[in-house]
Amino acid sequence: MKILYFTGTGNCLSVAKRFDAELLSVPQMIKNNIYEIEDEVVGIVYPVYAISIPGIVRKYLLQCKIKANYVFVIATYGCVDCGSLHEMKKLLEANGNKADYYTSLLMIDNYLPFFDIVTQLAKLKEKNIENNLNKIVEEINARTTKEENCRWFNNLVSSIGHKVVKQIEKYTPKMFYVNDECVFCGVCKKVCPVSNITQDGTNKPVFGNNCESCLACIHNCPKNAIQMKIQRSEKRFRNSNVSLNEIIESNNIGV
Ligand SMILES: Cc1cc2nc3c(=O)[nH]c(=O)nc-3n(C[C@H](O)[C@H](O)[C@H](O)COP(=O)(O)O)c2cc1C
Ligand code: SF4
Ligand code: SF4
Fold first, then answer.
1. How far is CA 225 from the centre of its chain?
2. Cα separation of 70 and 2, whole Å?
3. Over the stretch 179-212, which tens digit does the pLDDT of each residue have?
4. Which ligand is nearest to the CA of 199?
5. How confident is the model at residue 203, as a pLDDT?
6. Would the pLDDT of 51 be above 90?
7. Residue 199: its pLDDT value, please?
8. Which ligand 1 atom sits nearest the alpha carbon of residue 9?
9. CB–CB of 165/90 below 8 Å?
10. Does the beta carbon of 192 sit less than 6 angstroms from any atom of ligand 2?
11. Quick one: which atom of ligand 2 is closest to the CA of 197?
12. 16, 5 in Cβ contact below 8 A?
């Protein structure tokens, strides 16, 4: 089994890790120029962005050929997934791929402009993540088939999601600023999946315009030195089953 995943704060990686599989991160696949995935079973685990699909995942899947007897898709999200799975189905089919099992999993919402992490963590129990994930793992290991069954109205709304994702990508780096807590450690640079962060003469991070809005930099800064001009939370988040090193290994493309 091989699983393709993309992660900013570890939710998707924590899900991928629950399977006995070789894990393939989207940024590393792009870096290594690998656009074919072949195995008996292939999985795709991605975070919902703007009720749609992250730009980097969309771009990669538009080029990647998947050859497998069973393909599954898991979208992790924090609040509303709307028609994201339907968008994924369309995206796969646009490139001659298809999946046998589609599902989404409600997890912690890491989108700081809208969500407070303290409140999100307080909802962990009611989100029932472990039980829901256990059920998904069981179904996939039994090779169950499951259609995406998003409603037509949700599909309609999500069909403009990728345009919103593009706008979010454009404005996210403009919303960042770095305060005096920065110790110039370079972690933000290492967790960025598209090498959008450089360091200036004093080693302070500088954000470029090639942003995927994953928020890996802001959530994984050990000093909470990166702030957003609009944020609902001082607290940051990384999934408790995922280490900082694992995020770096997933995302550092070392350019
Ligand atoms: C730019 C951005 C947009 C997001 N949009 C949505 C959304 O539309 N609906 C939702 O439920 N969660 C949304 N989220 C929350 C993530 O989908 C969720 O926290 C996901 O589990 C994060 O996965 P990760 O930890 O692997 O990065 C968004 C997060 C980001 C960073
Ligand atoms: S991770 Fe935080 S402390 Fe380290 S260089 Fe980046 S902003 Fe500064
Ligand atoms: S700059 Fe930050 S939010 Fe943008 S892609 Fe890099 S890590 Fe993600």
1. 22
2. 11
3. 999 999 999 999 999 999 998 888 899 999 999 9
4. 2
5. 85
6. yes
7. 87
8. 25
9. no
10. no
11. 6
12. yes
How far does residue 106's CA lie from ligand 1's centre (Å)? 10
Nearest to 205 by CA among 171, 169, 178, 236: 178
pLDDT for the residue numbered 15: 98
Q: What is the pLDDT of residues 207-228, one digit of tens each?
A: 999 999 999 999 999 999 999 9
In the chain, the amino acid numbered 153 is: F
180 alpha carbon to ligand 1 midpoint, in Å?
A: 28
- CA distance readout (Å), 54 to 11, 104, 211: 14, 15, 11
> Domains along the chain?
2-159 (3.40.50.360), 163-251 (3.30.70.20)
60 near 12, Cβ under 8 Å?
no
Nearest Cα residue to 44 out of 94, 95, 103: 103
For the CA of 169, the closest atom of ligand 3 is 4
Question: Mean pLDDT over residues 94-102, rounded?
Answer: 97
Residue type, 104: S
| Rounded CA separation 19/9 (Å) | 19
Q: Whose CA is nearest to atom 8 of ligand 3?
A: 214
Count of residues in the chain: 255
Nearest C-alpha neighbor of 88 from the set 27, 16, 147, 163: 147
CB 83 within 8 A of CB 47: no
Long-range contacts of 119-126 (CB under 8 A, 24+ apart): 120/78, 120/237, 121/235, 121/237
